[in-house]
Amino acid sequence: MENDITISVKGLTKRFGNFTAVDNISFEVRKGEIFGFLGANGAGKTTAMRMLCGLSYPTSGSGTVAGYDITRQAEEIKRHIGYMSQRFSLYEELTVKENLTLFSTIYGMTSNAIKAKTENVFRILGMENMKDAPVKDIPVGWKQKLAFSAATMHNPEVVFLDEPTGGVDPVTRRKFWEMIYRASSEGMTIFVTTHYLDEAEYCNRISIMVDGRIKALDSPERLKEKYGVKTMDEAFRIVARDARRGE
Amino acid sequence: MMNIRTLGILLRKEILLMKRNPFIPRIIIAMPLLVMLVLPLVVNLDVKNVGIAIVDNDRTELSRRIASDMSASEALSVKAIGFSYEDALSLVENGKADAIVVIPADYSKKLSIGGEVPRLEVDANGVNATKGMIGANYAAQSAIATLKKWMGEQAGVEIDAYGGSVVNLFNPTLDFRNYMIPALMVVLIIIICGFLPALNLVSEKETGTIEAMNVSPVGKFTFVLSKLIPYWIVGILVITVGMLIGWLVYGLVPAGNIVSIYLAAILFSLVMSGLGVAIANSSSTILQSIFVMFAFIMVFQLMGGLFTPVSSMPEWAQMVTYAIPPRYFIEIMRSVYLKGATVQDLWVQYLALSAFAIFLCGVAAKTYRKRS
Q1: Touching check for B9 and chain A: CB below 8 Å?
Q2: How far is residue A101's CA from residue A111's CA, in Å, rounded to a whole number?
Q3: Which residue is closest to B15 within chain A, CA to CA?
Q4: Which of A86, A105, B101, B203 has the most Cβ atoms closer than 10 angstroms to its Cβ?
Q5: Of 3.20.20.80, 3.40.1710.10, 3.40.50.300, 2.60.120.560, which CATH number belongs to B50-155?
């Protein structure tokens, strides 16, 4: 069972001055799992994720991602993960194709592999007619699909998605989750933060963060059962009742 | 650490983004045009049109000749000839005149009697010190020339109007533009190669694309290089436009080898872009980086020897200029342009520029953080 664990974190903490953004969290994520990271704005989700991706130094605590230490081997981790940030992070002035080529080259893919993979992405997404359009000209829903494709082109072991569906309509969100499922079925582990509670239902397991701490961690069904409610929305309200941070 | 393929694709990205930017390609061409065409006409340290107010208490033929010779002089323009010092002073106070020439009463009489030579008085306005002092000097020279000529005529012999002669080496016409144009190209590289990389990197921070780079396996050295190398090209473009204008518009062609100018331009572009990236690394907004960059550029322009010759600065300031990279580039540009100096002649300056380039690019790479 041990090598079934892709992400393992113990006592992870991040402080900014007097403010403890992430307070002593511990959890494990299994290979191939879709792991939801829930919480209100300011609960510490993004900060926690940034430490796992090697973008931020932990103040204390330890952990591994894809078998590498998050404190000492951050650059190794970066070879084995994909990351899609909350803010859109493709180059707006480059075309769809140029963006995909840029990112897959950076991850060390060969020219042939890049060619095959981009063709495949365009076919699956139905974007053949947009491949030479500058990214700034395509609709926001497509941009997010594209960003997800750019983050998964190199078949990473873990994909980190930071509120990937912010600001899009429910239909597009639904389609986005189909992409997540497809990636998961190809063996990628998905670590996704969100504050849409309907999305929580799509995850295998979820953790609920409140004020920098993990207050609940289990499958959606078990959580609903535990709090005796019918929807994740109600479960979340009970767990996050005492929250002091956030809007 | 270094990956050629990654560097290649990053450079391609930088150049595509630069080309597609609505304003960068224009600035690279328009700014040299503007600076090189307009500034030499406006920024002129030659003093011309010095306003003179003459107080003529003598009212003789000689005093009228002094006045008419002054108004005939190219540098001087006689604003008023009057009889009261107060009137003349009020002209200076109103900014209409820069200096007052007082010809005392009985000047011409005393001069022809001989013995004690009477004094002609020149008072200069010290508010605009350069114009006042140089103007007063011109006025005095003009009066002396008139006197010598007049005395010669009285004695019936020609006296050489000038006691000596001065020949200016390297800039024979002492044209301020010949001195200024090579230096203006330095200003262009300071501004373009300093600001653009800083703005480029900070705007990646602002739009969030830098996050995608930081979370990727791109080595930070490779990434910083991809931010610096494009500005070699920009520096070469800018200096080419500058030299073309210098040649086509002002007829100024470097006396030395163009290669030595390009070499210095490449080194100096690296110095400025290294500084720009280093500043961008520690700024989180474009505004911040602009303010810090401005502080550097102010010092560079004022202390680099561009407007004020380094040799006329106080000793302590001269010591400071050794730490100011444009000083070396300006020296190289002027020496190559006007004296035809070679890289061997200027090896100290080239060495200093290389050292600054290595140091600042090192700082840029060192201070770039993929993790916070």
Answers
A1: yes
A2: 9
A3: A94
A4: B101
A5: 3.40.1710.10
C-alpha separations of A112 from A6, A109, A117 in Å: 29, 8, 8
> Mind telling me how many Å the CA of A8 is from chain B's nearest CA?
19
In the predicted structure, residue B172 carries a pLDDT above the cut 90: no
Nearest Cα neighbor of B189 from B252, B148, B245, B232 is B232
* pLDDT number for residue B162: 42
Q: Which chain A residue is nearest to residue B208, measuring alpha carbons?
A: A89
CA–CA gap between residue B203 and residue B18 (Å, rounded): 13
pLDDT digits (tens, 9 = 90+) for B66-124: 888 888 887 788 888 888 888 888 888 888 888 888 888 888 887 777 666 677 888 88
Minimal Cβ distance to A102: which of B9, B207, B215: B9
Tell me the two tokens of residue B197: 């990389």
Q: How many Cβ pairs closer than 8 A exist between chain A and B?
A: 76
**SS3 call for B120:** coil
Buried-state track A65-102, b at ≥16 Cβ within 10 A, e below 16? bbebebeebbbebbbbbbbbbbebbbbbbbbbbbbbbb
CB atoms within 10 A of CB B236: 15
Q: Does B369 touch chain A (CB under 8 A)?
A: no
Residue B269 reports pLDDT greater than 90: yes
Chain B partners within 8 Å of A94 (Cβ): 13, 16-17
CB B312 within 8 A of CB B229: no
Q: What residue type is assigned to position B226 of the chain?
A: S
Residue type for B126, please? G
Q: Which amino acid is at A28?
A: E
How far apart, in Å, are the Cα atoms of A13 and each of A56, A68, A69, A212? 11, 18, 15, 9
Torsion of CA B167, B170, B173, B175, to 10 degrees: -130
- Interface touch B216/A102, C-beta < 8 Å: no
What whole-number distance in Å separates Cα of residue B12 and Cα of residue A238? 52
In tens, the pLDDT along A19-50 reads 999 999 999 999 999 999 998 888 889 999 99
User: CATH assignment of A32-57+74-239, given 3.40.50.300, 3.30.9.10, 1.10.10.10, 3.40.50.80?
Assistant: 3.40.50.300
CB B215 within 8 A of CB A50: no
Smallest Cα distance from A17 to chain B, Å: 14
Separation between Cα atoms, residue A90 and residue B59, nearest integer Å = 83
**A149 pairs with which residues across the strands?**
none
Of A193, A198, A190, A208, nearest in space to A231 by CA: A198
Nearest CB neighbour to B6, from listed A79, A92, A106: A106
Domain assignments of chain B as residue spans, ordered by start = 4-43+173-367, 50-155
Would you call A107 and B20 a contact, using CB atoms and an 8 Å cutoff? no
Chain A residues within 8 angstroms (CB to CB) of chain B = 53-57, 74-75, 78-79, 81, 83, 85, 87-94, 98, 101-103, 105-108, 134, 150
